[in-house]
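Internal tracking record. Fields below are filled automatically when a chain is submitted to the structure queue. Please do not edit lines marked as system-generated. If the sequence contains nonstandard residues, flag them in the REMARKS field before resubmitting.
Queue: standard
Priority: normal
Entity type: single polypeptide chain
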Amino acid sequence: MKLLWYILAGIAGGIIGGMGMGGGTLLIPLLTLLLDIEQKHAQAINLIAFIPMAVVVSIINAKRKNLDYKSILKVVVPAIPMSVGLSFAVGKISSNVLSIIFAVFLTVLGIVMMISTLYKCTLAYMCKCKEEYSYND
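SYSTEM-GENERATED OUTPUT FOLLOWS
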């Protein structure tokens, strides 16, 4: 039965990851809260699951010509050494501290996304109102 829950968590993480949000935002809480996996192990599982998802998404975007290769290099070059270094650092941090750091990260991410969405919706609404009510009426 537990295997079924692991599969469902993987499917949910894959769906969210496929939509562009990042499967880890859902997969890690599912693994830690519902399946009682230690935070470090949940993050390791997420990183391993991320590899095939990233390859598939990269292939799809390359076929659609949606990749800016210069920007990719600007992100990948510093990301690789940081990922390796932080992987070693995480090994020395307790799972409780790691859980708190991840919770703060998700909270800040949620707040930033909420503010960005509200800003975009407000702009869209104001532009629509300008079109409907012109000053020449």
